[in-house]
Prior knowledge:
Structural class: mainly alpha
Number of strands: 0
Largest sheet: none
Shape: elongated
Low-confidence stretches: none
Helix content: 25-40%
Order of helices and strands: HH
Mean pLDDT: 83
Radius of gyration: 23 Å
Amino acid sequence: MSIQTDDFGAAPPKRVISAAPASPAEEAIERALRPKGLREYV
């Protein structure tokens, strides 16, 4: 009887998640999608 193991390789690199925009273009797109006035939120 032999012991079998699952070899999944090395662990994936850690991901850094941040609320900061990845680029100025991303920030501009997010700003453009937001409602302009308070009435549009409600």
